Amino acid sequence: MATFRLVVVAGRAYVEKYHPAYQTRDVFTLWGILQLLARYPWRVPDLDLMFFCGDIPVVRAAAYPDRSEAPPLFMYCTEDPALDIVFPDWTFWGWPEVNIRPWAPFLEEVARESWRTPWLDRKPYAFWKGNANVCGLRRDLMRCNKGSDSGKDWNARLFRQDWGYANRNGFKDSNLAKQCTYRYKIYVQGRGWSVSEKYILACGSPMLRVDTPFRDFFSRGFVAGRHYWPIDAARMCPSIKLAVDWGNAHPAQAQRMGEEGSSFLRKELSMDYVYDYMLHLLTHYARLLRYRPTVPENATELCLESMACTASGCAREFMMESMEKYVADYEPCALPGPFTADELAELAQRDVEMRSKMKKLEEQEEET
């Protein structure tokens, strides 16, 4: 299933490609690894890994009763029944096909745009815009739109995104940083995991997060009721309506939730921490290797100059914008220890309590 094999030997990176990736996912993932090598020269150990550039985890735990026999496969997300190793996605360095800038400049831009429209001045509805054709869950979401077959107003304002038209139109109406004009924003998965979550959370509007089994490397840090409002996937429309009604009736609390979510991104998901996570992950992975990595016969060396020089248009622009300009003269952040069993139980209990509270609110709403 691997899209490519990455080998690092003596601080230099080599890649052997096996399958085409969708768009330039592989290119910008590899570009990000080169930025890590530039930021922390000689700190990334020799390693040899396989990487899959898809949306759905493929190493299923059920297939490997002995976990030590499972193949280590890096990708962008995982879920409880899967063993894939989670790595930051390519969009941290840019997504040229849909004109999404690298993460650091995007955060600066969305902060400016968010300040233009204070939360109370935003439209008092839940907003979502995207490709509704990629999965059944998104098609179900569209039934919550005003003027849908139900004839009800579920407090949702949903828009279909035609990326082909957006491209031909120069992405004039598709700037994610300028989509912070609604009080609430909906996150719903695509075929599997979706990169849209971090962009939705960045606006300072409470994220209404439709239940999903998929998680990326940072979403385990989310706390329901603090960073987002959970939406029952089986009851999306009434759940969305309740969330919006509650938020509009309790504006101070709703605004605080939006601020907590965007603050989480700015503090915990800065590019400094993204690179530190990458370094810690690769260092721990390399310690598990039982052989000394060598350069594969069919591999090509990755170089900053050759990747940037052969790119054109938005791809080249985003590479220049996300290029590391300085060598880190400090130690990476300290890696926290894994969750204890008690901490995991506490997180699970908090989530159960929050969902129970939401269900009671929905039941009270239906009775009235």
Automatic annotation (TrEMBL):
Q: Which domain of life is it from?
A: Eukaryota
Q: Record's SMART domains?
A: CAP10 (SM00672)
Please list which residues make up the signal peptide: none
Q: Which InterPro entries match?
A: CAP10, O-Glucosyltr/Glycosyltrsf_90
Q: Which Pfam families match?
A: Glyco_transf_90
Domain named Glycosyl transferase CAP10: residues: 43-292
PANTHER family registered for this protein in UniProt:
KDEL LYS-ASP-GLU-LEU CONTAINING - RELATED (PTHR12203), OS08G0101800 PROTEIN (PTHR12203:SF105)
- Official protein name in the record: Glycosyl transferase CAP10 domain-containing protein
What is the species listed in this Swiss-Prot or TrEMBL entry? Answer: Panicum hallii var. hallii
Taxonomic lineage is: Eukaryota, Viridiplantae, Streptophyta, Embryophyta, Tracheophyta
